[in-house]
């Protein structure tokens, strides 16, 4: 991939080196989430940051959520940026990448096209604007893998749900990325919320361990 140019590239590069310390001894970490429209990005962030699951789908343009986590004796403020996945926003979305510390790339496990777009669109875009920034690849809507109606529709088009061990791109990305993590996210229900909270904290922290330092 060619290196990004201009001020935006400089901001992204700075983000890959580290984040500035927040007031009162806090650390700040900027996390940007990308992926196709409707793949589950917003639900994931709302469950993690607010503990609530949106009942209706409302396309996001650019939203920001803030939450705090404590790992060891470090208190970290996470600023989570939700971006629009629709093509209409392709020219505006890169503005969100400035000073990013971790990028979450999401796909819908019941929509193979959204998984294919990780390789075709999202990884190339993120690698261009946030080269060297740790990545987390997240499969959303895993509860629908057992939904009979959803499975019927998918199989009617001769497709199958994307699985955690899906061969191909995940292995390719692991080989090309210094800090890469992969997990499935089931966000509905109490167990889902607890799982998302634990997993997001674990994987974001693991992916950016070279960013927040003592």
Could you name the key traits of this structure?
single chain; about 210 residues; alpha/beta; Rossmann fold; six-stranded mixed β-sheet; globular; disordered N terminus; methylation; nucleotide-binding; prenylation; Ras homolog family member F, filopodia associated
Strand order of the largest sheet: 2-3-1-4-5-6
Write the CATH architecture name.
3-Layer(aba) Sandwich
What number is the mean pLDDT? 71
Indicate the multimeric state. Answer: single chain
The fourth-level CATH homologous superfamily is P-loop containing nucleotide triphosphate hydrolases
Domain count, please report it. Answer: 1
Structural class: alpha/beta
Number of helices: 6
Major sheet size, sense and barrel closure: 6 strands, mixed
The geometry reads as globular
Structure description:
With 214 residues, the chain is α/β, with parallel strands linked by helices. It has a single domain, classed as 3-Layer(aba) Sandwich (Rossmann fold), CATH 3.40.50. The chain is 36% helix and 22% strand. It contains six helices and six strands. The protein has a six-stranded mixed β-sheet with strand order 2-3-1-4-5-6, with helices on both faces. α2 crosses α6. The chain is globular and about 50 Å long. The N terminus and C terminus are likely disordered.
Question: What's the gist of this structure?
Answer:
Pfam families: Ras. The chain has helices spanning 6-17, 41-50, 112-129, 148-156, 169-176, 189-207, and strands at 27-35, 62-71, 74-83, 102-108, 135-140, 180-185.
